Amino acid sequence: RKEFVDLYVNYMLNDAIRKPFEDFVQGFIRGCPATTWKMFLPVELQTVLQGHTKFDWHLLEKNVKYSQYKMLDQTIRNFWTVFHKLPEEKKKMFLAFLTGSDRISGYGEEYFTFQIADPEAANPDEVCLTANTCSHILFLPR
């Protein structure tokens, strides 16, 4: 029985996926030459490809640019007060709403910026919060 289990496990974890994995590696190396990636440790490569998963939310607040708003406007102060009270998971959901991803690129948080803009609606109470994920702009009604 032990031999059967060992052979079965080897087949499932090695032999059965060998060809698809080799095809993946070949395609990956064609698009991303191996010499470029060899300078990274595995954890660094993961961060470059997937982005950062830990955040300094106050640094994020510091890097925001405002359009039709000032940092001391009541709407902005209310926004950040509520934002900082959110649990970590909700903050990541906000990041996904704003950028399309719940991670910040491998460049790092100090280089990540977004903009908060006033949609300048006639009746702000009838306007929903929206985001332009390509440009990282949050349209926050007054």
UniProtKB/TrEMBL annotation:
Enzyme class, broadest EC rank: transferase
Keywords: Ligase, Transferase, Ubl conjugation pathway
Keyword set includes Hydrolase: no
EC identifiers of the protein: 2.3.2.26
Stored InterPro entries: E3A/B/C-like, HECT_dom, Hect_E3_ubiquitin_ligase
Coiled-coil portions: none
The keyword Transferase is assigned to this record: yes
Source organism, top-level taxon: Eukaryota
Active site (record annotation): C134 (glycyl thioester intermediate)
Signal peptide: none
Gene Ontology MF: a single term: ubiquitin protein ligase activity
UniProt GO BP: protein polyubiquitination
Catalytic activity: S-ubiquitinyl-[E2 ubiquitin-conjugating enzyme]-L-cysteine + [acceptor protein]-L-lysine = [E2 ubiquitin-conjugating enzyme]-L-cysteine + N(6)-ubiquitinyl-[acceptor protein]-L-lysine
Residue stretches making up the HECT domain: 1-142
Listed SUPFAM superfamilies: Hect, E3 ligase catalytic domain
PANTHER family hit by this protein: HECT-TYPE E3 UBIQUITIN TRANSFERASE, UBIQUITIN-PROTEIN LIGASE E3C
Protein's name in the database: HECT-type E3 ubiquitin transferase
Provenance organism: Psilopogon haemacephalus
Designated gene of the protein: Herc4_1
